[in-house]
Amino acid sequence: xxxxxxxxxxxxxxxxxxxxxxxxxxxxxxxxxxxxxxxxxxxxxxxxxxxxxxxxxxxxxxxxxxxxxxxxxxxxxxxxxxxxxxxxxxxxxxxxxxxxxxxxxxxxxxxxxxxxxxxxxxxxxxxxxxxxxxxxxxxxxxxxxxxxxxxxxxxxxxxxxxxxxxxxxxxxxxxxxxxxxxxxxxxxxxxxxxxxxxxxxxxxxxxxxxxxxxxxxxxxxxxxxxxxxxxxxxxxxxxxxxxxxxxxxxxxxxxxxxxxxxxxxxxxxxxxxxxxxxxxxxxxxxxxxxxxxxxxxxxxxxxxxxxxxxxxxxxxxxxxxxxxxxxxxxxxxxxxxxxxxxxxxxxxxxxxxxxxxxxxxxxxxxxxxxxxxxxxxxxxxxxxxxxxxxxxxxxxxxxxxxxxxxxxxxxxxxxxxxxxxxxxxxxxxxxxxxxxxxxxxxxxxxxxxxxxxxxxxxxxxxxxxxxxxxxxxxxxxxxxxxxxxxxxxxxxxxxxxxxxxxxxxxxxxxxxxxxxxxxxxxxxxxxxxxxxxxxxxxxxxxxxxxxxxxxxxxxxxxxxxxxxxxxxxxxxxxxxxxxxxxxxxxxxxxxxxxxxxxxxxxxxxxxxxxxxxxxxxxxxxxxxxxxxxxxxxxxxxxxxxxxxxxxxxxxxxxxxxxxxxxxxxxxxxxxxxxxxxxxxxxxxxxxxxxxxxxxxxxxxxxxxxxxxxxxxxxxxxxxxxxxxxxxxxxxxxxxxxxxxxxxxxxxxxxxxxxx
Length: 755
Prior knowledge:
Maltoporin, Chain A; 7% helix
């Protein structure tokens, strides 16, 4: 009898539950940008008073399920947009669909929430910075990552030298850079591993920057040890524009962007635009740089189905320049050359890159997200440099040529699904990636005056494949606690054909590496969130190293961790602080300027990062980034274990102004402290403190701009190296600081017209 009663009770209970759920309703919808009519992702959608929060997906969609029939207030908020509150009533068995358009508005820091929902994806700092400090030149693209410093030492045409988290990253060895998901870094490059030239990006088209420091993101593989950054270009133009810029030192620049489809396209959820940039400058060096750069980009975005977006991007870039190279301290002190002079005035280069990028994003009716991306680049590079002058060849000098022709193509795909188990939410992502680089005539030669080849040092063809699979799980255990765990497997096949060997030889090597990740997030309340990031990453070595080592130790691992906190102690104050650690394994380094392999031992880096964003008034914002690092070699004696040129303390900050009267601007500083230039710290790279200013006055149809780099006209060294060199006529070589001078006071005026 008791069993019968229990069964009856269970049946009645199940029926009651089914009846209850049968009468529950839903709220769903899509959020658009009113100016472009494009969907907005990561918009915060909150059911006021209930504590339920959702973020819009790739197609701007959101959904709340199992809601009791009742009135609801739905609040929509997004950085840089006016918040919107909608009151609606959900009935039994009813799904309400809301179509919301958000209007651009001045940033209010009080709107920013420290959210537990998808904490792993939060980009609070970058979202604020990109809105408050619009990028005005190509260098600012990289500087938008807090703590990242750059140095240019080739007249503006060569990729910048990058510094981050105690790394001298050279031109990109330990930071993974992408644009709209397409790789920027060039593996096994003629000049250096991971060479990343971002000059094919038109600054005015950068919409946002996603970044993370450390090797903690599952879908980011090779080179993502110090961190990664993905630059997102604008999907659509809200207006067509033309911009003219003129500055000191014979500097001229013209940029234009044309909206091709206009309102008719927006009505069909389509957009297309064509943009171009041309730059010319002789720069501030004694020898005119004759720097020329041309960029052309076209982009189309539209729907190929009810739930699928297609984005097609095509671009081409060309640049040619002369540069003054690095000069030794003694040459300036002796009067042989002045601060902006050169030892070998025939240095320079030429480069080009053409890109095709296709991205498909599908969100199924069950909210599964499928992403497919195909990309192709044709790349050409030729660089003439002279770092040691007459050290090796006392008659002709030591000028070298580095040259390559490259085809790069690849695929990136992922599938994500979300499930609710009890009160937990599980977001599962699996992905596949493939990249192949094929170079022709990767060259290092001894040359004279950029016209005469004296001696070929290296010449060969590279064929390198990187294939990867990964799985990532993000579990929101409670409304406050979430866990992210991931695992990726990378496979490399490297091939190098040595064209100078007799007979011509081809060597191959393969290796694989497994990289686990584990990240924990705990949100105390909407004002405080703690996180612990841990993970293993790696950077591949040059194919010439890989084949020379027969595949041994060619994928040095990096193990890192971050312990951090995001705090909003006041409505208008946001703080992000982290203590971090990174350990790197033995690696073999290919020195592109010498054509030799140099082993370097294990290393350890640790430090503190602090970012503060504060809204002083409705129009005035302040920010500061403080970054410390303690980089050391683990296989050298104390006092001999410094890592050359690795930054130990950096800081950036400033004030930004945005008024409703059209006046905006910023006053910014950047500071890099003294740092060791060699292993025993007997040669020191001197630090610098530089300030920049930007002022804009905007009306409906035009914007006037004035920018000034190095406002105080400080004399500073932008890049520095401890190099052994011999000047003409010197009896013996000397090792000391060789530097490229930083820009003096440099003012530019601009006029932008909109229609």
